[in-house]
Structures are given as structure tokens and as C-alpha cells.
Amino acid sequence: MEAGTPTGKGPGVRKMFDAIAGRYDLMNRVMTMGQDQKWRRFVVEKAGNPDNGWVLDLATGTGDIAALTYEVYPNANVIGGDFSHNMLREAGTRFQDRHIHWQVCDANHLPYPDNSFESVTFGYLLRNVDDSQAVLNEVYRVLKPGGRVVCLDTTPPRKNLLYPFIRFYFRFGIPLLGRMIADDEAAYAYLTGSTMDFHSADQLAELFEQAGLIDVGYRKFMMGTIGVHWGKK
Description:
The chain is of the alpha/beta class. It has a single domain (10-155, 199-232), classed as Rossmann fold (3-Layer(aba) Sandwich). It contains 9 helices and 7 strands, in the order αααβαβαββαβαααββ. Strand 6 (214-221) and strand 7 form a beta hairpin.
């Protein structure tokens, strides 16, 4: 199922993710020193138990959060949505033993009715869209009243004693790993640049509230470079 054609920087981002899909998981493990799975489990925990309701994992990539949701809550109906066909193909191959619905969709124009989901999760989505607020408004639309949204994304590090070292790793270390492991230095240079230019954790929390979400909060990981935000409709 595909809804809408990505505009703005969307086509370039989709092409990039299609190109790196095969090495995406390995790069995540290496870049985060194996911590990324812990953050995803925290996302699933914060999203709560949907019982036998429907859960949407947007920008599902190769399916880790969707698969964890199904593992923890096997009675849930889980949709893993992404606009990268290659990412979804990898997800379907990795988790072919799980009853997850893999669907191509654009987060700017979700192909679901209002008030459809007990929870919506997403990892590394908002830094890759043109308008974070518009996407959050769309997520709010498809959430049921009382439903939860949980977002995992990078966040710019604060300028403290560690800042020069973190900036060096982002500017040079990650693109080098991208060249060595994924054979795509440019893609990971873009991803690190999008981190440094992204909303601060406080700014993103404000966007959650502007979308109409309540009980908004966040927690940072990995020396303040990763943030998990949550809110409720």
C-alpha cells in the first residue's frame, strides 16, 4: 500500500535508504556500540500494551521496533510502515516468521482513518522530513484517544566538555564507518549532518505539545545525542 509521493527532500532520502538497506543494521550496531537495541526496547515499553489493538511503527526501516513490539505484545496487530521499498524488503526477510503487516507509506499522508491506532512509534523519522510538525499532526490524527506516540531520534549534543569529541565523531568517524561498512560515505555524512541541525530535545517536546499531545516527556541516551520523546492523545 502506498499513499502519496514524497516531495521536498523525500525522494532523495528514499533513494539513500534504498541504497543502504542491506548494511543498515550492521551500521546501526557499530555506530551506537550496540546500544541501539536497548533504546528500541525503551520505545516499546513507553508505548505500552495495546492488547489486541493496532500499532503503527513508522519509518520502520528493517523492522526492529515493529518486531520488538510483536515479541513483547504478541496479541497486537502490528504495521511496519516505510517509504523505502528496499528497507521493507529487508524487514520482511529478517522477520518473516512474525505476523507483521509491512506497508509502503508516506508519513506526511498516512493511508489510515482517524483514531486507528493504540500507539504510533517511529525511529529516526523526523530529521528526514521537511516539516516535523506536519508529520506529528498526521500521527495525532491516526491515534486513538488515549493512544501513545513514542519517537526515537538523534538530538544535537549540548556544548560541554565532550562536545568537541562528539562533533569530531559525527563529522569524521561516522562517515568513515559508512565508507568502510556500507560503501556509502555520503549517506552517513548526510545522517550526521541532519543530527547536528535537528531540533533540540526541548524544541521537539514543544512540537509534540503543539500537535495536541499531552503528558509529553523525553529521556536522553548516549551522552545526550539520542532522545526518546513520548506523549498521549
